[in-house]
């Protein structure tokens, strides 16, 4: 996955049009990540609702980053089974939805994850055999398919009209008593569903509609003028669009942009600030990426790397004195009670009384729980605070809420099931900045240090080793590599003017680059050393000298890391082709610089063979990092082997404690 941050003057890229398949989903995720990377700072800057903590763009980026990584993993998994193996559309959309769910951050990120899950529910259905169907059908003529809805005609079901007042419209999520699930699901008159292109278009219409339904189901108290409003407008426009899936996506994109421009008139806090909804702006980027993925159109980024969003006629920033009037509730459809079903549109945002305070904490966690436990959980959490979003299903949920009593919110999750990956953030005072809960107050107020090192390491043993050496540590959990947001948090915790970042994993290079870019935007000088293994990070940390000039220190650490060749021992999970031949499940694999070089049956014997091959090219010191389940006898045996076969080579052993891989090797 490429870094979403590009230097000025990046060339415009074009893309091949896609049918609605797994490749289109992968392209969509990549384009959405790219677009959010470009727009992240702007979205963060206009984040005033529900809490002005300036992180909506970052949260949306991290959510899509997790989704994109999951889709890439599906493609990579198929690639190992054979060159002709490709994932199906259900494979890709399920991975996208799951990745977004487990990686969702913040209020808008959690809602976006549910929107993607709703789309996946439809797109993962059995698509049936569309090959060989009547090619004479397919909806409309070429002009209609290429153009979508006419710009001078109102979109069917658009929930907003002039003046910012929400009106009842067919299928409108903001209509009088008409829920988002009640919009028409049938294609426009004259469209035949027998043609593959028409089938794709109808699937996308239904997917966008289901996305809105599921998002409303997950939000306890929907509010007018937010990401939900933008999503509903997009789905309504898609329901009335003619043509192929690209035309449907373009119609959704156009309607989303128009709805976004109306949000300052629907939400008082946006009108006062003169901005559009930040979550809605992020969704516009995501929907625009979908339209480009399906149409093959190039993103309209200028020579200076500006975002892919074209401002509508109404400015996205408005002066407070020219703010449109607030949208009124159409009648009984607006209410303050938690919603049990998505049978109503969003309610107006309540205006905070002067002197009132918002909840002190944001609580987010994944929850393993039976679906029957969720209604009671929603009721308990709704009584504790606001901005409640509970999304997911099939036993895995993502919970987000703003509360004063963070402990009570976690306890509610414990009563419902097993909460994990718990994240509690304190909204620090009226300034709207957030600090990680549990971070000492002194850490947020003390004078920044001149320099710090941030290192990603697996295992408690290595974490302790690096911490003792003065580094700020980010834990690498098995199967859950840290996202760029976690790296940014670590850079902030380091509280230094200059930071050296050691990702220690080739899979983290792009996440680390994104984190470094974000930290630089906040005024921190960051140097990213592209370490590919923990042993390279240890070597770099060993020569770190804060008293040196920053550039000199970075050069010395980079040189030490580059002079350290690395290997690891792993256990094969299944039969596969490797550079060393065919391995079977349970075989011990010796990987040198990331490639399988040795296949064996015994950990110590295979490790000795790896050491011999690496030391044949020279070396003065061997570093062994033992996994949690590896006995000390393995290290003793390897030390004796090195001492007996390779003269004048020292061996250093660390108890890393990582679950996988069982053994890490470094040669300096």
Question: Can you give a write-up of this model?
Answer:
- The protein has helices at residues 22-45, 56-79, 89-103, 106-123, 142-147, 196-218, 227-239, 245-262, 268-273, 278-295, 374-384, 406-416, 441-445, 460-468, 484-494, 509-521, 534-542, 550-562, 603-615, 632-645; strands at 361-368, 385-393, 396-403, 418-428, 433-436, 449-457, 472-475, 496-502, 525-528, 565-571, 576-578, 581-583, 588-592, 595-600, 621-626, 650-655, 663-667.
- Strand 15 (621-626), helix 20 (632-645) and strand 16 (650-655) form a beta-alpha-beta unit.
- The two termini are 30 Å apart.
- Strands 14-13-10-17-15-16 form a six-stranded mixed sheet, sandwiched between helices.
- It has 668 residues and is an alpha+beta fold.
- Helices cover 41% and strands 16% of the residues.
- The longest helix has 24 residues, at 22-45.
- The protein is globular and about 75 Å long.
- This is DAK2 domain-containing protein.
- Residues 150-163, 318-342 have a biased composition (Basic and acidic residues).
- Pfam families: Dak2 (PF02734), FakA-like_C (PF13684), FakA-like_M (PF21645).
């Amino acid at each position: 996955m490429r870094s979403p941050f590009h230097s000025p003057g990046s060339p415009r890229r074009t893309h091949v049009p896609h049918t609605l398949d797994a490749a289109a989903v992968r392209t969509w995720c990549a384009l959405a990540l790219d677009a959010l990377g470009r727009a992240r700072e702007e979205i963060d800057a206009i984040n005033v609702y529900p809490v002005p903590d300036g992180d909506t763009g970052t949260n949306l980026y991290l959510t899509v980053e997790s989704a994109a990584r999951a889709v890439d993993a599906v493609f990579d998994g198929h690639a190992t089974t054979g060159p002709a193996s490709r994932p199906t559309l259900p494979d890709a959309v399920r991975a996208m939805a799951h990745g977004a769910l487990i990686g969702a951050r913040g209020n808008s990120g959690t809602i976006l994850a549910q929107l993607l899950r709703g789309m996946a529910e439809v797109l993962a259905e059995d698509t049936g055999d569309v090959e060989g169907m009547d090619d004479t059908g397919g909806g409309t003529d070429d002009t209609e398919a290429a153009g979508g809805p006419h710009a001078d005609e109102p979109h069917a079901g658009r929930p907003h009209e002039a003046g910012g007042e929400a009106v009842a419209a067919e299928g409108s999520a903001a209509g009088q008593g008409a829920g988002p699930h009640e919009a028409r699901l049938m294609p426009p008159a004259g469209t035949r569903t027998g043609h593959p292109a028409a089938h794709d278009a109808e699937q996308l219409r239904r997917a966008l509609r289901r996305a809105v339904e599921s998002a409303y189901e997950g939000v306890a108290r929907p509010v007018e003028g937010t990401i939900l409003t933008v999503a509903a407008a997009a789905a309504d426009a898609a329901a009335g669009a003619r043509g192929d899936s690209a035309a449907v996506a373009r119609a959704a994109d156009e309607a989303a942009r128009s709805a976004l421009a109306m949000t300052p008139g629907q939400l008082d806090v946006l009108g006062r600030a003169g901005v559009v909804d930040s979550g809605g702006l992020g969704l516009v980027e995501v929907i625009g990426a979908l339209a480009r993925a399906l149409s093959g159109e190039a993103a309209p980024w200028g020579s200076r790397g500006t975002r892919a969003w074209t401002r509508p006629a109404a400015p996205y920033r408005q002066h407070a004195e020219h703010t449109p009037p607030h949208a009124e509730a159409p009648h009984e459809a607006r209410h303050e009670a938690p919603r049990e079903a998505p049978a109503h549109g969003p309610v107006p945002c309540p205006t905070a009384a002067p002197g009132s305070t918002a909840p002190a904490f944001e609580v987010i966690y994944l929850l393993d729980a039976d679906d029957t436990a969720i209604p009671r959980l929603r009721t308990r959490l709704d009584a504790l605070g606001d901005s409640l979003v509970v999304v997911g299903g099939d036993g895995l949920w993502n919970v987000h809420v703003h509360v004063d009593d963070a402990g009570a919110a976690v306890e509610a999750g414990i009563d419902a099931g097993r909460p994990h990956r718990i994240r509690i953030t304190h909204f620090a005072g009226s300034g709207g900045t957030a600090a990680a809960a549990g971070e000492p107050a002194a850490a947020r107020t003390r004078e920044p240090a001149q320099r710090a090192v941030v290192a990603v390491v697996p295992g408690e043993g290595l974490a302790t080793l690096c911490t003792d050496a003065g580094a700020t540590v980010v834990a690498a959990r098995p199967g859950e590599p840290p996202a760029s947001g976690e790296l940014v948090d670590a850079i902030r915790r380091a509280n230094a003017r200059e930071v050296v970042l050691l990702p220690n994993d080739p899979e983290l290079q792009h996440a680390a680059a994104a984190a470094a870019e974000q930290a630089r935007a906040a005024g921190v000088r960051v140097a990213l050393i592209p370490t590919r293994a923990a042993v390279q990070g240890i070597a770099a940390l060993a020569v770190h000298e804060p008293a040196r000039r920053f550039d000199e220190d970075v050069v010395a650490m980079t040189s030490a890391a580059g002079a350290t060749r690395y290997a690891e021992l792993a256990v094969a999970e299944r039969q596969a082709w490797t550079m060393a031949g065919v391995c079977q499940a349970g075989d011990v694999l010796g990987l040198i610089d990331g490639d399988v070089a040795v296949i064996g049956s015994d950990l110590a014997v295979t490790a000795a063979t790896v050491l011999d091959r690496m030391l044949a090219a020279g070396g003065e010191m061997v570093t062994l990092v033992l996994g949690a389940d590896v006995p000390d006898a393995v290290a003793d045996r390897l030390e004796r082997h090195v001492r007996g076969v390779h003269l004048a080579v020292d061996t250093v052993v660390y108890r890393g404690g990582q679950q996988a891989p069982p053994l890490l090797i470094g040669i300096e």
